[in-house]
Amino acid sequence: MANLSDESATLVSVVIPVHNGCGFVENAVRCAAEQTWPSIEIIVVDDGSTDATASVVRECAARDKRVRLIHQANGGVAVARNAGIASAQGDYVAFLDADDLWHREKISKQMEVMQRGGADTGIVYCRYREVDSEGAIIKSPHFPPYEGYVYPLLVLFNFMGGGSAVLVRRKCLLEIGGFDPSLRARGAQGAEDTRAFLAISERYAVRIADSYLMGYRLSDGNMSSNIFKMFKSRQIVLREVRNRHPELPAFLFRWAAGENASWLAERSLREGKFPQGLALLARTILIDPPSALNLRIARSLTRGILRRLKDWFGWTSSDHPVKSERQHIRHFHEISPEEGLQTEPRIPDRHDRRRAVAARLAVAGVVPTS
C-alpha cells in the first residue's frame, strides 16, 4: 500500500450508495477503481436492495480488495451516505451515485485543488455533463467557475450539480452531522445534497476542479426522476435557510423557488411528462412569472411532443420526421474533460443577471460565516 504520510497518497474514501442498482453498480465501482489517484477505498452501501446488487458488489470485492460492502435496511440516500461516512477511513470523501459516471482523473484533479486550497477549503466540485441511460451526452451545462464564499449562489441554484460531483473534507461532513434523513421522512427526497453543501459553505470555502469530470445520468429509474418530491424538498430547504438567515433579501428566495420550478418543468416536458411539466410551469408562474419566460421550456415542450409521437407511432431514428438528436452525440468517456470549457460569448440572459446579483451578495459576505 502507498505511504499515507505522503501527501500525494492521502487516502480518499469513495462512498457509493445504491438501492436496486444491479444494472449500474458494477460500472460505478469500475469508475472508482480506475481513478488515477493512488490511494482510495471504495465503500458500497447497499440500501436494502431486493435485486442482485449485493451479489454484483461481492464479485467486485473479490477482484479488488479496496472494495467493501455495507448492508442496511432501506433508509434512503442520506442514511446510506451517512453509513459510508461513518465507515470511511480517509480524511476526504467522494460520493458516487450508482448510476453516475466519473472520468478517471476526477479525484486526482480535485485533490490537487483541495491540497492547494488549504484547511479552509471544505468542498471541491467539478463540472458535470448530463448523460442518458447509455452514457451518451445530452448537455454540458456551463457556468462561471464559482469559488470562495458561495452561500448566496447556492441558495439561488445548485451549480455543483449533485453529490457525485464533489470531494469533501470528512471533518466538514462530521461537523454538520452528515446528510439530513428527515427530508425523506417528510416525503421530500431530492435536496439532501443542496442542504449539506449549504451547511458546509457557511463555514468553509468552495473550490472547483475546472473540468467536466462527472456524468450525471438522467433516467426514469433514478431518485431525481420524482419531480414533485424534488420540488418539495428544495422548498423545505429554502424555508430553513430563510428562517436561519433573515438578512438575505426576499427576492433571492423568490428567484430560487422560481428557477427551481422552471428547471423541473423543463426537465419534465423534455422527458414527455406533460402533466408534471405543465403543473410545475403553472407553479413557476405563481411563484415568479419571469422564470416561466424561458426559451428552454419551449424547446423542451417540442422535444417532449416529438418523443411522445415517436413512442406512439413506433418511429426509429431513420424514419423519424426530425433527425434524431442522438446521431451526433458522443459517450461521456469518449471525449476530453476539457472539451466544452471554452464557450462563445453571448448576451447575458435573465439567469445570468440573477446569478451575477447572487455572486455580488457572496462577495459582500451578506451571511456571516459560522
Automatic annotation (TrEMBL):
GO terms for MF: hexosyltransferase activity
Domain of life: Bacteria
Keywords associated with the record: Glycosyltransferase, Plasmid, Transferase
Residues passing through the membrane, by range: none
Enzyme class: transferase
InterPro entries on file: Glyco_trans_2-like (IPR001173), Nucleotide-diphossugar_trans (IPR029044)
Protein's recorded name: Glycosyltransferase family 2 protein
Domain Glycosyltransferase 2-like: 13-141
UniProt cross-references to SUPFAM superfamilies, sorted A to Z: Nucleotide-diphospho-sugar transferases (SSF53448)
Pfam families according to UniProt: Glycos_transf_2
Enzyme Commission number(s) from the entry: 2.4.-.-
